[in-house]
Amino acid sequence: MEYIVGPVLALMLSMKYTSLQIKEKEHKLQLLEKKIELVNTKVDDVDKQVIDNTMRIMTPLVNATRKIQEQLGM
User: Fold this and answer.
1) What gap in Å lies between CA 37 and CA 74, rounded to an integer?
2) d(Cα 27, Cα 19) in Å, to the nearest integer?
3) Separation between Cα atoms, residue 60 and residue 62, nearest integer Å
4) With pLDDT > 70 as the criterion, what percentage of the chain qualifies?
């Protein structure tokens, strides 16, 4: 009797423990996925800002270069 109950009980406990571990890992995975999505949106926002800032900086430089070229007759 004890030869049967012991292994069965051990199997049931290990299955329950494994189930709890899987649920915990899935929860952590969901949190990490949310953080990744947040980082991706922030990166996209920063990329847009960099493009806008680059255009703001380059536009006056391009205009000044054109004026210089016109003055020099190029």
Assistant:
1) 50
2) 12
3) 5
4) 100
The residue behind tokens 């016109």 is 70
Judge if pTM exceeds 0.70: no
Token pair belonging to 28: 């952590």
Distance CA 70, CA 48 (A): 33
Asked if residue 74 has pLDDT above 80, the reply is: no
Q: CA-based angle 19:25:30, to the nearest 5?
A: 125
**Which DSSP symbol is given to 73?**
T
Here the contacts of 36-40 (C-beta below 8 Å, separation 24 or greater) are none
